[in-house]
Design goal:
mainly alpha, about 65% helix, globular
Length: about 150
């Protein structure tokens, strides 16, 4: 449900996508060949349902940036106003850098770091060779100044 919501940013549409993808998974269970993990297979089905929904309804499908849909952090007593301001500045700098990335690079980063998928799982979800996944992550890291 959280992946569907991050893709469409609408709880009602996200619920519909989850229901549709689970129905498709159930109907296609006999066709699952085990060439990927079940979670990768389900991610792929959900993404296909989301793109089909987008095509049908012309509803905006929006992938969020890292942390946009996370709950705000709990307040911590030992954080000074200067530390908070410094963290905000770093977050703004990172957001500007992420805006420079293509949607395909951002999506690859999301799957790796937010969803904690392995390179193999990302390749399965996106339908790409593993070398392309590595290349995208490397390019994103360079662009963000992480290498």
């Amino acid at each position: 449900m959280s992946l569907a919501f991050r893709m469409v940013r609408d709880p009602g549409i996200a619920e519909d996508l989850v229901q549709e993808s689970l129905l498709r998974a159930w109907q296609g269970l006999g066709g699952f060949r085990g060439e990927s993990t079940v979670s990768t297979w389900l991610y792929k089905i959900l993404m296909n349902c989301a793109f089909n929904q987008f095509s049908r309804s012309r509803h905006e499908v929006r992938f969020s940036g890292p942390g946009e849909d996370d709950a705000p952090p709990e307040p911590v007593d030992h954080i000074t106003p200067e530390m908070h301001l410094d963290a905000l500045r770093r977050a703004e700098r990172m957001a500007r850098q992420l805006d420079r990335l293509s949607p395909s690079l951002v999506r690859t980063l999301e799957l790796r770091y937010r969803d904690d998928l392995s390179y193999e799982e990302i390749a399965g979800v996106l339908g790409l060779p593993i070398g392309t996944v590595r290349s995208r992550l490397s390019r994103a890291h360079r662009t963000l100044g992480l290498m």
